[in-house]
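Input structure tokens:
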């Protein structure tokens, strides 16, 4: 029987990914100043690696991680629009 009061592993991973995304949003200006035009990886609510392409950024991660929790993005240069 399914226990609807328990949190599943995919739900836990999604929550961590959302926290990483929120952390990135809250620190975006300083990250953009340092890492514009690079790819970055955010895990555990911190920037853990960067590189010139996604594979390089992932290859620079020095800790174990779940790809379902990681936020991997290319940091744009210039203004970024915000959702309404």
């Amino acid at each position: 029987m399914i226990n609807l009061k328990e949190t599943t592993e995919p739900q836990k991973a999604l929550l961590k990914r959302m926290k990483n995304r929120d952390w990135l949003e809250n620190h975006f200006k300083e990250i953009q100043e340092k890492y514009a035009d690079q790819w970055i990886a955010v895990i555990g609510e911190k920037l853990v690696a960067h590189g010139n392409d996604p594979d390089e950024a992932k290859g620079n991660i020095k800790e174990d991680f779940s790809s379902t929790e990681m936020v991997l993005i290319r940091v744009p240069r210039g203004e970024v629009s915000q959702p309404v």
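The two ends are 41 Å apart (CA to CA). The first strand starts at residue 39 and ends at 43.
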